[in-house]
Amino acid sequence: MEPDLRQSVDLSLLPPARHSSDESRLSHKTRAPSEDDRDSAGARPKEPQLDSPKKGQKRGSIHNLLYEILSLLVSAASLAILIAVLSKYDNKPTPKWSLGPLGITLNAIVSILSTVFRGSLLMPVAQSISQFCWIWYTQPRPLRDVCDYDAASRGPLGSIRLLFRLRFIRFASIGAVITVAALALDPFFQQSVRYHSESAVDHDRNATAVAAYTWGTDIVPDEDLLLGYIALPYDMQVAMHTGVLSGNLVSFPDPPFMCPSGNCTWNPYNTLAISSKCIDITSHAKIDCDSGCHFTASEDIVMQNLLSRVDESGGDYLNDGADQWDPFRMEFVYIPDALPVLRPWADITGLLAMVQWVKATGPETLTLSSTTTFEAMQCGFYISVQVLVPTVHNGVYSEAVIREYVQSDNANSTPTFTANDTSFYFLNAYEGLTPAPPNLTYHPPIATPNQSPTNSTNTTFTFPFNAYYALTSQFLQAGFLTGDITRNATAGMNGPDNAIMLYRAANVTHAMHGLAQYMTTVIRAVGSTILKGDQQNNSVIAADHAVAGSVFVQKQFVAVRWAWLTLPIVLLVLAVVLLAVAWWETRRLGVGLWQSSPLALFFHGRMEGGARGFEGVGGVDTAEGMRGKAEGLWARIPREARGTVEVYEKDSLGKRGRSVGSSIELVSHNM
């Protein structure tokens, strides 16, 4: 009798249709070839010829983990790229990329990289779980555990089952935890990026404000100081009269500006201006009712000159005695006669004028009594160079004066006036135009490097003396900032128009500041005003007055929440540890690096006391090795024996497609 060449191999990893993991066993059974087999084959099939193991052959070489290592490197690289991209755009406007007509968002980049990370992370994790299955069987274990490991390597449900099977105390549990936790990777990646809206500079558009470097160079005033105002330009005269009547205005007119978005800022810059400074001197005056009620300011001679005419007994300007009085009186102060009270303005070169007033402020103004409430104020007007910081917010222009320069570079080295040990250096317009004093020139430190028309630190601001002379003349005009208001029970209120308007104003001090602001606006806008008239364009700004600013628009910004990237980083570290431990345990215990290969039980499985299978065959200690050996082998399940898997060499296939070779039969029975 010829020797039987059939080979039987255990098959627990194949998923047969009729198999119970709890009630199955593998048995090897020798089957004699049928007559049909012999007739169809025509010759006895070849027994698979497999190499014997070589001495000193290494199990689980690191080279056999090439794909797993590359996969982890891809995972680490994708995470590193994501972190680099997020770091670049953190707290910056949302980036916009284009791919032809298509746009690519940051969310798309995050999604792509997270998908690459998750896919490349789970491949070595699945292989490590499968490898721990073989390590698990270095000790006697239930065969059904193969199913648990196999399911765990395939997805989260199997991983959860394996966790309870291993009670979280085996290294394979790390792989199961990674597989389950990987379900949360996409939400964690998406949560790492948050968007918020905030203002950002639009570099494609320009904001423009105006500055003045000189004004009134063509003014030629009359020699007579009282007539010098006639030479003032029309827009300045209108501005000064309008400013006097601005006591009830909430805000003053804006200088020319251009802000395309309605939200703009400017760096501080210098401009020529008219400034005002007011001092409350109410404490200097009081009402004395010892012999008829009247005002007195015994310690302020300048104020006393004003108050001496405002009393209930009549005085120079009251005609009917106690039945009438003046609840408001304002006057222009002649500077040479007011030096004792001008100490706050002593260092100002271009002092134009000073006014003072007394105003009854209580509800009862028909009579003067000891309970009458009043205010007494002094305000000075002067030329300065202001350092401004304009802003436009939601279309509303505002500006803050952060500093001002009041001494001209060519101020007199000797004081113009001296009184009570105080030196005064302001110009004296009362001396007339002959000889004409020099123009006022200022060279303040440059506020910002972008100020036009020059970036030089020697930017010169010039105010001609003729213009100074004409403005002083306007302040001297009767009825402009002078006048008395007389009230009585029968005649009502009498006085100059400006005085009546100021008396009725809610805040006279506000009107004085408004006067200075209106004058400054004209000085800064004069070039642009002429240009607007010539071009019939209200938005044009003269280039020699323009100061560039920044246009702000609402942009979407990226805010990276780095804590959400903790999970991907931890899972990557655990995956590296898992693969390293799996490889180390494989080497230490001498297990083949079979991983998830379904060929492992073909080549290495056998029943105790049964057929030998492929045990001892060389080159099948790794999944790659088993795949190489399997290339020369064929397998089938014959019709007449569905519980049998036949394995044979490729060249033993008969003409009719049948084979006679190694066979494996799966026999199920009840325990």
From TrEMBL:
User: Region entry Disordered: which residue ranges?
Assistant: 1-58
Matching InterPro entries, A to Z? Answer: DUF3176
What are the protein's UniProt keywords?
Membrane, Transmembrane, Transmembrane helix
User: Which species?
Assistant: Mytilinidion resinicola
Report the transmembrane regions from the record: 65-86, 98-117, 168-189, 562-584
Q: What's this protein's name?
A: Uncharacterized protein
User: Which portions of the chain have biased composition (kind: Basic and acidic residues)?
Assistant: 19-54
* UniProt keyword DNA-binding, yes or no: no
